[in-house]
Design a protein that fits this description.
Layout: H1 8-13, H2 27-44, E1 48-52, H3 55-61, E2 73-77, E3 83-87, H4 91-97, E4 103-107, H5 113-118, E5 126-129, H6 135-142, E6 146-149, H7 155-158, H8 163-186, H9 193-206, E7 214-219, E8 239-246, E9 248-249, E10 252-253, E11 256-262, H10 267-286, H11 293-306, E12 323-325, E13 332-336, E14 349-352, E15 356-358, E16 362-364, E17 368-372, E18 377-379
Parallel strand pairs: 1-5, 3-4, 5-6
Antiparallel strand pairs: 1-2, 2-3, 7-8, 8-11, 9-10, 12-13, 14-17, 15-16, 17-18
Enzyme class: hydrolase
Keywords: Dipeptidase, Hydrolase, Metal-binding, Metalloprotease, Protease
Domain Creatinase N-terminal: 33-160
């Protein structure tokens, strides 16, 4: 594929909504999730589970609300139906999104929702709480109940994706890869990073996503900073390009990075690009059921350290973890990093991005995602071919 061979207008005009969208997660799957959470609660000795607004509430109920100062949560007893705590004036909006059968516990603006939740439990009950529940809410609950970490009943389930989740994630990632391909075509000397970001957002929308969930566009020296620099750069001839972006489909994230040459780049950069690709491949090859998350990180680092980079997080080298879990949150447990000994299991999904940074000069990040299978790992999208051929 030729880089810089087209225009924004041509590329946007040829995009259309995704022809075969993946089906959304159904009510039956959400009921299974709730039953599984109740089984996990019994294992950890919890009488109830409190799930705060955010990705985990969406996972169980379909309600895609962000946390705020007003408590919105699911209170799930170890046996029985879930209850949704919500401000009374939000009832109509809640019902419109709620994808499961649940009792509503509505509170007025002058009432205390924490007390309302407490009335549904017996004194001394053990309450498993969402690890992302606000500290202040947890501390107030601690006065009356024994609190335990609800991660096994929340993150423990969310880490293992079902076939329907994998299909939604695959669509999001393939859509983003197509947007990447189109973005490379519109590059030209003088184009600003903000123009590329705007195009990427519009292209995601044209394919049926709600725009970009995030976007980083970095040229030349700025690629040496993993999350870029604040200025709006203009692309120059013979510079390195790094673009990292994603979207969501039914809440499930993509997050793909491509690094490639716009014109000619020095031989050292080409050698480092090949090393980055080797490290990414080593991490992929190390991913198999039963292997620890940290062993995947170690596999990538060994490639870099044999080439004289690092060790550990020293630069030039890899300044961050090799990858992160992904799903309804763009970063979620588990993590491909030293110290995370979580064993890999079929259905787990990760980014694979062992970035190489040469301080204040350049950085190279190739990021694709894989899911763990019964025998190893499988890519969601095809990794980059070369520094000059970012796409098949």
């Amino acid at each position: 594929m030729t880089i810089g061979c087209s225009t924004t207008e041509i590329e946007l005009a040829s995009l259309a909504p995704w022809a075969s969208p993946a089906p959304p997660v159904g009510a039956a799957e959400r009921r299974t999730r709730i039953a599984s959470a109740q089984a996990r609660m019994a294992e950890i000795g919890a009488d109830a589970l409190l799930v705060n607004a955010g990705a985990s509430l969406r996972y169980f109920t379909g309600v895609a609300w962000s946390p705020s100062e007003r408590l919105v949560a699911m209170l799930l007893p170890v046996a029985g139906e879930p209850r949704i705590i919500c401000p009374a004036f939000e009832q109509g909006s809640l019902v419109a999104e709620l994808a499961i059968a649940a009792d509503l516990l509505l509170w007025e603006e002058d009432e205390d929702p924490v007390q309302l939740a407490g009335k549904l439990l017996a004194p001394g009950d053990t309450l498993a709480i969402d690890p992302l529940l606000p500290f202040a809410v947890g501390e107030r609950l601690r006065r009356s109940f024994a609190l335990v970490d609800g991660s096994p009943a929340i993150d423990g389930l969310r880490m293992i994706k079902s076939p329907s989740e994998l299909a939604l994630m695959r669509q999001a990632k393939v859509m983003t890869l197509e947007v990447h391909r189109r973005a490379a075509r519109i590059l030209a000397p003088g184009i600003r990073a903000s123009e590329v970001k705007l195009f990427i957002d519009r292209a995601h929308r044209a394919l049926g996503a709600g725009g970009s969930s995030f976007c980083a566009v970095q040229f030349g020296r700025a690629t040496a900073f993993p999350h870029g620099l604040p200025e709006d750069q203009a692309l120059q001839e013979d510079e390195l390009v790094l673009i990292d972006t994603g979207c969501t489909v039914d809440g499930y994230h993509s997050d793909i990075t491509r690094t490639y040459a716009f014109g000619a780049v020095e031989p050292e950069i080409r050698e480092m690009w090949d090393l980055e690709k080797e490290a990414q491949a080593a991490a992929f090859d190390a991913a198999r059921p039963g292997a620890s998350c940290e062993s995947v990180d170690a596999a990538a680092r060994q490639v870099l350290e044999r080439a004289g980079l690092g060790p550990d997080y020293r630069l030039p080298g890899l300044p961050h973890r090799t990858g992160h879990g992904i799903g309804l949150s763009i970063h979620e447990p588990a993590y491909l990093v030293r110290g995370d000994r979580t064993p890999l299991a079929p259905g787990m999904c990760f980014s694979n991005e062992p970035m190489i940074v040469v301080p204040d000069r350049y950085g190279i990040r190739l990021e694709d995602h894989f899911h763990v299978t019964e025998t190893g790992a499988a890519w969601f999208t095809e990794p980059q071919h070369s520094i000059d051929r970012p796409f098949a």
